[in-house]
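Translate sequence into structure tokens.
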Amino acid sequence: MSVSQQHRVLVTGGAGMVGANLVHRLVKEGNEVAVLVRPATNRLRLQAVEGRLQFVLGDLTDAASLQAAVRHIQPQVVFHLASTIWAKDPALSAAAHLEANALGTLHLLEALRSGAPEARFIFTGSSSVYGPGAQLHEGLPLAPNTIYGATKAAASLLIQAYARVHRMSTVELRLFMPYGPWEDPNRLIPQ
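Result follows.
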């Protein structure tokens, strides 16, 4: 996101590969950036900018911690990148995917609705919501064939509903195999 003015930004999933690249860019553009992290989060990708970030302890599965984080930060923009990653741990339970991806998104939307209702909400969805196939595009119906994809689709539908019902300003970006700096060395491009 290129911004002409600086914003107070909250990033979930900011220690991941995509999130870290986004956080570095937001800091470079002069934004006031807060990153929601769990206590055990590996912050290695953020070391170069950690002195210019605010780290806020919280967890998507804990609605109260999200309410507190939103009240404290009062974000104008929220980038919601936090998610489970099915490819890294295919044994992760369906309940764990549902709790983090769908319920966690619901908790964050509720925290914003009550604490920062004017915030712009940007969500990184996944191509997994479409299921298998070639020539996938945004106009296709949601037809996930994994639990991960189903929970990302549920999050997408929640976001759409909150935009309609509560007039929240939302955007979803469905990523297709992102790659770049700080990528896990076991992924396709590094291999």
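Note: DSSP finds four helices and six strands in the chain.
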